[in-house]
């Protein structure tokens, strides 16, 4: 992917990561958010998109026969908007293998922990329960597991005195709001690829922070 990128963003909640994408990459360097979807019709993320004139749609599970049907309809809508990359930005649903097959190596997620530590729900609470002193954020490709796909970018955050989620979340969100747009910019300019010798690993273009020589 290079020379522009059409994005679909999926979000279930407040949509602060969507806002960071709208403010930081949308409409720049050929990157366009062309669709914002949710499983929750009332998600604030949808209003943020509507305010920017971006088409939105909600696909609640309760309105479909099952997850396969829901993800089929969602994938159809996203593909119909011409999206080339799907960004899960606080999307609190697992996507089906059939959905992933529709967008091969083109679904990414932001997770509020340094994976592979603390996958799944309530990652910050999991980390606090373990008494960690270093928190962090991971942006990764989505595969069929829970937060197990190849890692694109990670950033650590030292908070040795954190005891409560509120001691961590504001700083962690600020990191997410930088790291997710950065990953999108890198993908848009073709600087991210899966290592042909090791599909668990992502190669970043030499010269980018963390860039690897092939
Ligand atoms: C973020 O912390 C993200 O890492 C997690 O859900 C949260 C979503 O926040 N998966 P927002 O809706 O983008 O404000």
Would you mind describing this structure in some detail?
The chain has six helices and nine strands, in the order E-H-E-H-E-H-E-H-E-H-E-E-H-E-E. The protein has about 210 residues and is of the alpha/beta class. The chain has one domain (about 5-195): Rossmann fold (3-Layer(aba) Sandwich), CATH 3.40.50. Strands 3-2-1-4-5-6-7 form a seven-stranded mixed beta sheet, with helices on both faces. The chain has a two-stranded antiparallel sheet with strand order 8-9. The longest helix is centred in the last third of the chain and has 24 residues, at about 165-190. The radius of gyration is 17 Å and the shape is globular. The model has no long low-confidence stretch (mean pLDDT about 95). Bound molecules: 5-O-phosphono-beta-D-ribofuranosylamine. 5-O-phosphono-beta-D-ribofuranosylamine (GRF) binds near residues 11, 13, 15, 89 and 90.
């Amino acid at each position: 992917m290079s020379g522009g990128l059409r994005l679909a963003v999926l979000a279930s909640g407040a949509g602060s990561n969507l806002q960071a994408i709208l403010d930081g990459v949308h409409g720049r360097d050929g990157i366009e958010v062309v669709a914002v979807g949710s499983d929750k019709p009332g998600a604030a993320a949808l209003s943020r998109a509507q305010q920017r004139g971006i088409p939105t749609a909600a696909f609640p599970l309760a309105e479909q026969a099952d997850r396969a049907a829901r993800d089929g309809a969602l994938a159809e809508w996203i593909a119909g908007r011409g999206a080339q990359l799907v960004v899960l930005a606080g999307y609190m649903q697992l996507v089906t293998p059939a959905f992933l097959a529709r967008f091969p190596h083109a679904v990414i997620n932001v997770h509020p922990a340094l994976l592979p530590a603390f996958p799944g729900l309530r990652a910050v609470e999991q980390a606090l329960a373990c008494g960690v002193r270093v928190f962090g954020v991971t942006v990764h490709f989505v595969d069929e597991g829970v937060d197990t796909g190849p890692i694109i970018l990670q950033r650590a955050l030292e908070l040795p005195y954190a005891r409560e989620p509120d001691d961590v979340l504001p700083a962690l969100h600020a990191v997410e709001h930088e790291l997710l747009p950065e990953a999108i910019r890198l993908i848009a300019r073709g600087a991210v690829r899966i290592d042909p010798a090791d599909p668990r690993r992502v190669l970043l273009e030499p010269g980018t922070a963390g860039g690897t020589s092939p």
